[in-house]
């Protein structure tokens, strides 16, 4: 068993929470207890102000004009790229702006499909798939890191395989080693499961992928807001994340890629802003990241995301992680000790983020969610875009509580206290 993490006074939560206007809200007669940060995080005033400031003082299309506003907007936009890339341990040219993680994963899947169709020339040929080639995912995937690979397999004749999850929620690495082999071309996995909260063994998965000559593709949506992250050090080939889960705006996210991978991939979306020369018959494309950024760009959103990153950096990701580890243990211990609660993936001795999904015996997840909401507590209910994982545990839905840097221990205690009365309220327990 792991030992309890030390309590931390590193975060001045009273001051920090004042930066988030929505946290002072009330739901009916109750103070808001927001435990749905795994779905979307709340935004500090600095992020809101950054977007408003751009829109009111520098709004202009980027990379398209020679006038003063256009130059200022372009500089802010590319500075934002550099800021977010550095937060991930990457260089600016290794970060492609997308509308979110889903768009990033579809970009990769369709680019590989284009390579299979012969686009991209000799450099892209390394990504081409043949019938019988294998794409490997895990049983824990969010649908965004599953369905694009299903579709790619359908279009190319490749075979989709999966790494199973054990009863305790950990990945079966023995089976992974047996299925990742000479026909494997892609191994896609989440850094952190959005249902189980477990930090997956990235080093082992990447080693298996690279030993087979396959690309390692990581979904970092549930790790980027909570863990110090260095994507090049993790040795993944490609990784995606979403801004709205890490204090940033909606409609912005990113695709990180090793330079040699991005430089070889053909584009997916095409149009303006990603070309060098166009004739009526053909076009030549810019190098990454612009090659993958066709059309009008999410300028204010990128600037807002950079403000979110600066906020996280000012707080300090080690301090964020330490605080959330206290919350994680408090949340999980409280749920584990509660009669009639079944935690999903309750593995011992593994690293986690402060996110727990559970089933309340005898009460549907949606009823639990309504019961909590009536008392001001916001949680997630449903399959969390992970139907195969829920099916693995014999469920169609669960309740998920997820914390962030602004969550307090007192809020976790309020949640646990109210949840403890759920079964009695519905007449199925004491």
UniProtKB/TrEMBL annotation:
Tell me yes or no: is Acetylation among this UniProt entry's keywords.
no
Enzyme class comes to transferase
PANTHER family the record matches? CYSTEINE DESULFURASE, CYSTEINE DESULFURASE 1, CHLOROPLASTIC
Protein family: Belongs to the class-V pyridoxal-phosphate-dependent aminotransferase family. Csd subfamily.
Q: Name it.
A: Cysteine desulfurase
Name the UniProt key words of this record, in alphabetical order. Answer: Aminotransferase, Pyridoxal phosphate, Transferase
| Residue ranges of domain Aminotransferase class V in the record | 33-415
Q: Name one GO molecular function term.
A: transaminase activity
Q: Does the keyword Protein biosynthesis apply?
A: no
EC numbers for this chain: 2.8.1.7
Q: Which PROSITE patterns match?
A: AA_TRANSFER_CLASS_5
Q: Which domain of life is it from?
A: Bacteria
InterPro entries on file: Aminotrans_V_dom, Aminotrans_V_PyrdxlP_BS, Cys_dSase_SufS, PyrdxlP-dep_Trfase, PyrdxlP-dep_Trfase_major, PyrdxlP-dep_Trfase_small
Q: What reaction does this enzyme carry out catalytically?
A: (sulfur carrier)-H + L-cysteine = (sulfur carrier)-SH + L-alanine
Q: What does the record give as the function of this protein?
A: Catalyzes the removal of elemental sulfur and selenium atoms from L-cysteine, L-cystine, L-selenocysteine, and L-selenocystine to produce L-alanine.
- CDD domains in the record: SufS_like
Needed cofactors? pyridoxal 5'-phosphate
